[in-house]
Design brief:
Blueprint: E1 4-8, H1 15-29, E2 37-41, H2 44-54, E3 60-63, H3 80-85, E4 90-93, H4 96-101, H5 106-118, E5 122-127, H6 131-135, H7 139-150, E6 161-164, H8 178-196, E7 204-208, H9 213-220, E8 227-230, H10 237-244
Parallel strand pairs: 1-2, 1-8, 2-3, 3-4, 4-5, 5-6, 6-7, 7-8
Helix pairs in contact: 1-2, 5-7, 7-8, 9-10
The chain binds phosphoenolpyruvate.
Length: about 250
């Protein structure tokens, strides 16, 4: 399976910024020949216009979160079916900013992942330890606990993406060492075998945390790394494209 390079635009930019970025990516994608799949996850109000621009480009569009219910009285939330209806193929779930800002725990993330799958989306389930947990030597245990608690059991491996994002590396310019990344991804793969069976080899495990053009190639070359989840560098088409062409 091709690596997946996913851009998380977070809560950045206005509609004109999102459409300009999408137009730029569309123009670059027109040349073809990328060795990876490309995905962008805009803020909700920009998903429709971005999906329209990218519809024939091969660049996929995803959401940054969805609710675990199909519909109902959940003011301010959005369902997996709504994302699918807007043209999304994927949804990021359990990002550390959601876990911190909205108190999302593993059970909530798993329920959201189940809802996303039911809606026909591929969940990108995020896990990762804090700096304190790493200093205490608990990084692998935390990652294993989050994967066990957040990933739906017995699901089809090709419908799942996991992202390892050490919290201390997100938006800080600090990147995990290639060795730490390889170790964490090997642990995630080991836990996935228990959850999805032999197909676990097919699950793409993305690395996220200050990925940029200068470090992407080395990170992507690590064992069990199946792509990247990119925050800040995905807001500049030139940088995102340089990462995509590092695969
Ligand atoms: C992210 O938020 O998922 C992320 C990895 O951000 P950044 O690339 O900016 O560290």
């Amino acid at each position: 399976m091709k690596p997946l390079i996913a851009g998380n635009w977070k809560m950045n930019g206005l509609l004109a910024d999102a459409t300009a970025l999408a137009e730029d990516l569309k123009a670059r994608a027109a040349a073809g020949g990328l060795a990876c799949e490309l995905l962008v996850c805009p803020p909700y109000p920009h998903i429709g216009p971005v999906a329209d621009i990218l519809s024939e480009s091969g660049v996929q569009v995803g959401g940054q979160d969805c609710h675990n219910a199909g519909s109902g009285a959940h003011t301010g939330d959005i369902s997996g079916a709504m994302l699918r209806d807007m043209g999304c193929s994927h949804v990021i779930l359990g990002h550390s900013e959601r876990r911190a800002d909205h108190g999302e725990n593993d059970a909530v993330v798993r329920a959201k992942a189940e809802a996303a799958l039911a809606a026909g989306l591929i969940p990108i389930v995020c896990v990762g330890e804090t700096a304190a947990e790493r200093s205490a030597g608990q990084a692998l245990a935390v990652i294993a606990r989050q994967v066990k608690g957040s990933v739906p059991v017995g699901m089809a491996a090709e419908r799942l993406v996991v992202a390892y994002e050490p919290v201390w590396a997100i938006g800080t310019g600090q990147t995990a060492t290639p060795g730490d990344v390889a170790e964490a991804h090997t642990e995630i793969r080991r836990v996935l075998v228990g959850l999805v069976g032999e197909g676990a080899e097919q699950v793409r495990i993305l690395y996220g945390g200050s990925v940029k053009p200068a470090n992407a190639r080395e990170l992507m070359a690590q064992h069990n790394v199946g792509g990247a989840l990119v925050g800040g560098a995905s807001l500049k088409a030139e940088d995102f494209w340089a990462i995509a062409t590092s695969c």
